[in-house]
Amino acid sequence: MKLLLTSVFTKTADQLSEILSAPPKELTVAFVPTAADIYDDKWFVGADRAKLVEMGFNVFDLSLKGKTMEAVEEALDKTDIIFVAGGNTFYLLEQARASGFIDLVPKLVERGVIYIGSSAGSYLACPTIEVATWKHQDRNAVGLTDFTALGLVPFLMSVHYKPEYKNILKQHMVQAKYQVKILTDDQAVLVIDNNYQLVGKGGEVRL
After folding, report:
1. Residue 143 has what pLDDT?
2. Which of the chain's termini has less CB crowding within 10 Å, N or C?
3. Is 205 part of any domain?
C-alpha cells in the first residue's frame, strides 16, 4: 500500500518520488476533480493537475458525478495512480458512494495502485471525514449524516493548519475515536504499507 496524503499537493509533490515504481512518463494518473464541482473558482484543482503534467505523468480526468460503478471500474482498470483533488469533502464523499468509487479504491490500493489525496482527497482516505466538520470550512450542503470514508489509514487528518485553529482542534481531538495527524500546507503523510511518515517542511504540529 502506497499513499501520499497532502494538505496542498503542489507544495509536497516532490515526496512522490519515494513511492513511484517507474518514471512519471510511464505512469497513468486518474485525476478526480469532483470535490470542486460545487465551486465556481477551481484554481487549486487546476494547479494540482498542472503540477502532475509538469512532472511528466500521463493524466486523464475522472469525474465521479453521474458515473456508474462499472464506468468507474473500467476507467481505473489500467491506472497506476489515483489522485483525488480538493474541494468540498461532504460532496466528494456523497459522489464517491454514489459512483461506487468508495468500494473500488481499497481493492485497487491493496493491489498496488498509488493513492494521492490533496486536502479533501486526503480526508476521504481516512476512516471518517468528521474533521471536515470541525473548522467549518466545508459546508455540508448535501446533508450527510454518515461520515464513514475509505479507511485506507487508521487515523484522521486535519489539513491547512494555522495557529488560530489550535483551540478548536484541541476541543475536538479529545473526543475523537481516532488519532489525528495535523498538517500545515507544507506537509504531507507518506504511507508505505503500515509505515506512516510526516514529510515536508517543519516538524510535527503540537497543540
Report:
1. 84
2. C
3. no
Domain harbouring 61, CATH code: 3.40.50.880
Taking alpha carbons only, the member of 104, 99, 161, 158 closest to residue 129 is 158
The residue from 122, 138, 158, 185 that is catalytic is 138
Q: Is the residue at 206 inside a domain? A: no
Q: How many domains does the chain have?
A: 1
Q: Report the predicted TM-score, pTM, of the whole model to 2 decimal places.
A: 0.95
Does 7 fall in a domain? yes
Is residue 119 annotated as a catalytic residue, yes or no?
yes
pLDDT tens profile 109-155: 999 999 999 999 999 999 999 999 987 667 888 888 899 999 999 99
CA distances from 104 to 32, 91, 96 (A): 14, 18, 10
In a domain, 207, yes or no: no
Has 186 been annotated as catalytic?
no
Q: From the candidates 119, 122, 158, 185, which is the catalytic residue?
A: 119
Catalytic residue among 37, 61, 63, 160: 160
- Per the annotation, the verdict on 7 as an active-site residue is no
